[in-house]
Predict the 3D structure of the following.
Amino acid sequence: MHGWYGAGGGGVLLMAVMIVLLWSAIVLLVVYGVYLARRLSTTGRPELERPDHHDAEGILAERFARGEIDEDEFLARRAALRRS
């Protein structure tokens, strides 16, 4: 029984360090997996694939909605687009 005294030459410390490293690796893999999943899911940019965003009136309406142009300019430009 004399061999059971103490920590056994640092084996417990080594095991504790290995457990911390193992859990750190697991957490990092999960975080990286979530990062990749989010990055891959947002690369499609569906708002650019809709045809109504590619026409001039759609772009004009977006600019008006964002406040880049006022109502008078919006109406004048829309009328000019519809004339051509």
Observations:
- Helices lie at 11-41, 46-49, 56-66, 71-83.
- The mean pLDDT is 81.
- The two ends are 99 Å apart (CA to CA).
